[in-house]
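TICKET: design request
STATUS: open
ATTACHED STRUCTURE:
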């Protein structure tokens, strides 16, 4: 064993000088220099570098794929509500509004549902609402004589005068029923007058078939101009009333009417409750007497001590007074 080691050392000692001589020979020969320069170790180093850079570029592709999944988000949040906004319905309009023949006034379509008297009606508008309409600018005789002032119609405050006005109150009511009852009309307010009267009734003109019914009442002698209110057609109504009076139309023909018995010439029946005031009469006491007798008694006793008109509807014992 020791001999083998000693032999190896001898061989190495001999080869080292020889290697030095060979190295000097290589330096002197230029061709050997070109072949030894591209050593295998040097070429392996750059290839390893390329491999390393390629591995670092591979992870960068991962975030790119992640960002590609985000664009669908805005698409999903924009289910367009455009149809909702573009199909907005127009604001509601009053379907019963129509052109007004009175400048500055308002006009609505309505149907006359009831006629109270010549100058008061009940109406229903096309939207279903209802109202009581007092015809503006006109006044027909009252159907309840105790509410009437005969002097307003140039009629004497007598039984005959009251009977005359009562008759024309009924005629005015009948005329209204025939002319506008159950018909579609235009209800027109006046910008110069109040919208509502003291009883809360709507003050308006009534137009039927294009004609002013208020005006027609005055023109034909069913009404007088109502002077306790202001309204646009005041002058026109005044002229029409003067013409009706001068031509003795309608209720203005009172002076030509045949007079009936007055209160001073009517004999009243004896009271059944003789001496038992303040309730002297019963309805049976007037049986067999003309209606004018009962009418005269009621007009001369407006406080109705016998309570013959207990419900105060203007009718006593079946007789309108």
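STATUS: resolved
RESOLUTION: sequence designed for all positions
ATTACHED SEQUENCE:
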């Amino acid at each position: 064993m020791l001999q083998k080691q000693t032999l190896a050392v001898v061989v190495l000692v001999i080869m080292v000088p020889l290697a030095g001589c060979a190295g000097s020979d290589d330096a002197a020969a230029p061709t050997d220099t070109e072949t030894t320069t591209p050593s295998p170790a040097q070429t392996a180093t750059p290839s390893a570098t390329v491999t390393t850079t390629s591995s670092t570029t591979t992870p960068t592709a991962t975030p790119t794929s992640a960002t590609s999944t985000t664009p669908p988000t805005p698409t999903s949040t924009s289910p367009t509500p455009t149809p909702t906004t573009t199909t907005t319905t127009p604001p509601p309009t009053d379907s019963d509004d129509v052109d007004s023949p009175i400048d500055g006034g308002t006009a609505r379509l309505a149907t006359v549902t009831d006629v109270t008297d010549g100058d008061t009606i009940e109406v229903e508008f096309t939207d279903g609402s209802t109202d009581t309409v007092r015809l503006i600018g006109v006044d027909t005789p009252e159907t309840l004589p105790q509410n009437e002032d005969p002097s307003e119609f140039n009629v004497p405050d007598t039984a005959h005068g009251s009977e005359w006005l009562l008759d024309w109150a009924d005629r005015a009511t009948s005329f209204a029923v025939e002319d506008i009852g159950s018909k579609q009309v235009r209800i027109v307010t006046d910008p110069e007058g109040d919208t509502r009267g003291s009883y809360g009734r709507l003050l308006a003109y009534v137009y039927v078939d294009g004609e002013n019914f208020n005006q027609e009442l005055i023109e034909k002698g069913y009404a007088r101009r109502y002077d306790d209110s202001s309204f646009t057609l005041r002058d026109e109504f005044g002229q029409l009333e003067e013409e009706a009076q001068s031509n003795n139309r309608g209720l203005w023909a009172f002076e030509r009417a045949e007079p009936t018995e007055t209160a001073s010439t009517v004999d009243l029946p004896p009271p059944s409750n003789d001496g038992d005031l303040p309730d002297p009469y019963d309805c049976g006491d007037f049986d067999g007497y003309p209606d004018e007798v009962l009418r005269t008694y009621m007009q001369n006793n407006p406080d109705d001590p016998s309570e013959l008109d207990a419900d105060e509807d203007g009718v006593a014992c079946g007789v309108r007074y």
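CLOSING REMARK: Residues 16-70, 84-94 have pLDDT under 50 and may be disordered. The chain is about 40% helix and 15% strand.
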